[in-house]
Design a protein that fits this description.
This protein has about 210 residues and is an all-alpha fold. The chain contains 14 helices and no strands.
Length: about 210
């Protein structure tokens, strides 16, 4: 059966289950031809088909990122789409392959961060995820930390606790002071008690070293 016929919108299904099942099947079979067909569907005239295709791609990326890493350039191009679903879907997929292609992803950061700054919350979430993946690369940490601090400085307060929690385990201790200063500068903006406490917990861990 053709890939397009297995997408949720083609089956008349209103939930994402067929897309998830397709991703699992493609992974299980290491079906490179099927994945290549899926990538062509990103340009389909039907926006729902496009949305289904990008969903399947990032579900594959979460399971077997090596199967989609060669399509990083196509995914990067999608970040310029006017279809927000494609933008954040592509950013999600790019996040899954970052550990496999850190050098290439590092080179694309100007594009990625520009899109994050003007995009939706979920687009920014996955852009920050990319930065955190790159933070794990010791040779890139010094360059990534200022970029990450910029994101923490401008992040919506609802997202700030998660960004801080996710970044802390991978942040070199030499950068703790700037991390602490950045979080301190945002603390008074956080209206939610629970979210403020989460940030304070991160700050305490930094202070404790």
């Amino acid at each position: 059966m053709a890939i397009i016929d297995q997408l949720a919108s083609s089956t008349g299904n209103r939930d994402e289950q067929p897309n998830i099942e397709l991703a699992e099947a493609l992974c299980a079979a290491n079906d490179k031809a099927g994945i290549a067909e899926l990538v062509t569907l990103l340009q389909h005239r039907n926006k729902q088909i496009q949305s289904d295709a990008v969903k399947v791609l990032y579900e594959i990326g979460e399971r077997k990122p090596a199967l989609i890493k060669q399509y990083a350039p196509e995914l990067l191009t999608l970040l310029q789409s006017k279809n927000n679903r494609l933008v954040w879907g592509a950013m999600t997929a790019l996040g899954t392959i970052t550990p496999l292609q850190p050098d290439w992803m590092f080179e694309q950061l100007p594009i990625i961060l520009s899109v994050a700054d003007s995009g939706s919350v979920i687009t920014r979430d996955h852009a920050v995820n990319i930065l955190i993946h790159l933070l794990k690369e010791k040779t890139k940490a010094a360059a990534i930390v200022p970029l990450l601090m910029e994101q923490l400085q401008t992040a919506p307060t609802n997202q700030l606790p998660k960004y801080a929690e996710d970044a802390l385990p991978h942040l070199p201790k030499t950068h703790y002071p700037v991390f602490l200063k950045t979080l301190q500068s945002r603390l008074s903006e956080i209206e939610s008690d629970s979210k403020r406490k989460r940030v304070e917990k991160v700050m305490k861990k930094i202070a404790d070293g």
